[in-house]
Write a structure and sequence with these properties.
The protein has 499 residues and is an alpha+beta fold. The protein contains 9 helices and 27 strands. Strands 17, 20, 23, 24, 25, 26 and 27 form a 7-stranded mixed sheet that branches. Strands 1-8-6-3 form a 4-stranded antiparallel sheet, with no helix packed on it. Strands 5-4-2-7 form a 4-stranded antiparallel sheet, with no helix packed on it.
């Protein structure tokens, strides 16, 4: 008896992942909960454990394959039923026998994500009459948020394409029909057959229509573009990258495609590395924030003497009682929660022509990891005490650095704090984390001469920066928020008395 290994839930609005690494190969023995493979989404890395003990009989989705939620990854056989001694990777339609008497099966539009009701059929990977294996990718849909690949719900013959490329389909709409092998003569197609291009590798792969159009418009050869899609398929983003690399070069000698010969010693010292999906998402989201929001930054500075004295006086007792060290971040979280009550528009977001005010504070805390910046969320931070905040931030920070954060732990934030001071930053303008309307930037604590009651004294000072969306937050509100944060930090007793 074989046990199926399937793609786990990837998180809200995430519908696909790429198989990054297999830790086991066919024929290997596996234990319960032993890690089988690692999946990459545009936000997190997900490890897939073995649901049972046995022998890995078959790998259905090899490394580099794009898979949807609940797609079949592998088969694990009992020790006494492990299949052939030299199992091979399942690839294409030949790997899955077609049930001869299977009834026709409709291929429907999958769930597209929250608030997404329609999609456009971008590309068909198969044409009418082609055999397909269960979970083999049939077509790709594009929404305004994500691209969704549609797997075959069963093995058989693709007898009809109901929604050709370019069609707009509704959620749960019908895309195609798959019939069993018996009577598998192709039905008359309701749409023209999709003819595959002949790519470099010799395997029939259809490039994205938008990519082909863009290459034609710019007279760009396919050989000059590296495809990152399934089976080397060229996506629109690949073409844009190639064009950007060419236009960014100061001279033809440094252009991306084609490149003129460079000195051997220079070429040996260059390294070209493909951006991870996480880095691509970070780049896209940050640029979208700049393009969408009317972003403005206001600055202030805070004397950290009060917090440092309070921390030094109680840190040992605090750690002894709560089992966690007293850091600065809990003070900043509490100060921001306090200020957000007075200036609620900084804790709100724009949705079309509406403003959504949040009667809670889900505090995002930006964390740098080896693979990029992530923002785990401390939920209902306004209802938490100092110790609970420190524990939660510590837990989320550790999970972020280990790549163990779930999608749920990074969604739903209403405001964000980013601490560039841990890297030595003295001043910066943080970028908004959409759809939020505010982000506070912390910086390095530095002793500076300041005037206090007519006297020049040396104090530990920190610059604060609030970036905000000027479409919803006026200058008065932004300055008021930052002043309230400054007041609370300079006199922490105000937090206890809620003033």
């Amino acid at each position: 008896m074989a046990t199926e290994v399937r793609v786990p839930t990837l998180g809200e609005s995430v519908t696909e992942a790429t198989v990054a690494t297999w830790f086991k190969k066919p024929g290997d023995h596996v234990a319960v909960d032993e890690m089988l493979c690692e999946l990459e989404t545009d936000k997190v890395t997900v490890e897939v454990p073995s649901p049972v003990a046995g022998k890995l009989a078959e790998i259905v989705a090899p490394e580099g394959t794009t898979v949807g939620v609940d797609a079949l990854l592998a088969q694990i056989a009992d020790e006494g039923n492990a299949g052939p001694e030299e199992p091979t990777l399942k690839k294409g339609a030949d790997a899955a026998p077609v049930q001869p008497d299977a009834a026709p099966v409709d291929v429907m539009v999958p769930t597209l994500g929250e608030s997404v009701t329609e999609a456009t059929v971008s590309t068909w990977f198969k044409k009418v009459g082609d055999p397909v294996a269960q979970d083999e990718m049939l077509c790709e849909l594009e929404t305004d948020k994500v691209s969704v690949e549609v797997p075959a719900p069963s093995a058989g013959i693709l007898t009809e394409i109901v929604a050709p490329e370019g069609s707009t389909v509704q959620a749960a709409g019908k895309l195609a029909v798959i019939a069993g092998a018996a009577g598998a003569a192709p039905a008359k197609p309701s749409a023209p057959k999709v003819e595959a291009a002949a790519p470099k590798g010799g395997k029939d792969v259809e490039d994205a229509p938008s990519a082909k159009k863009l290459m034609a418009e710019h007279n760009l050869s396919r050989d000059g573009v590296s495809g990152t899609g399934r089976d080397g398929r060229i996506m629109k983003d690949d073409v844009q990258k190639a064009l950007a690399a060419a236009s960014a070069a100061p001279a033809p000698a440094a252009s991306a495609a084609p490149r003129a010969p460079v000195p051997a010693d220079d070429a040996a010292r260059e390294e070209r590395v493909k951006m991870t999906r996480l880095r691509q998402t970070i780049a896209r989201r940050l640029k979208d924030a700049q393009n969408t929001a009317a972003m403005l930054t206001t600055y202030n500075e805070v004397d950290m003497s009060g917090i440092m004295e309070l921390r030094n006086a109680y840190k040992d007792q605090f750690e002894k009682k709560h089992g966690v060290k007293m850091g600065f971040m809990s003070f900043f979280v509490k100060a921001c929660c306090h200020a957000l009550k007075e200036v609620p528009e900084v804790n709100a977001e724009i949705d079309g022509t509406d403003i959504i005010y949040k009667n809670y504070v889900h505090m995002g805390v930006a964390v740098g990891t080896p693979t990029g910046l992530v923002v785990p969320v401390v939920r209902d931070a306004d209802q938490m005490g100092f110790a609970a905040i420190e524990k939660k931030i510590g837990e989320l920070g550790l999970r972020a650095r280990d790549g163990k954060l779930s999608m749920a732990e990074m969604q739903g934030g209403s405001f964000t704090i980013s601490n560039g001071g841990v890297y030595g930053s003295l001043m910066s303008s943080p970028i908004l984390n959409p759809p939020q309307s505010g982000i506070l930037g912390m910086h390095k604590i530095q002793e500076r001469p300041v005037v206090v009651k007519g006297q020049i004294v040396i104090r530990p000072m920190m610059y604060l920066a609030l970036s905000y969306d000027h479409r919803i937050v006026d200058g008065k509100g932004a300055v008021t928020f930052l002043v309230r944060v400054k007041e609370a930090l300079e006199d922490p007793r105000r937090l206890l008395m809620d003033i």
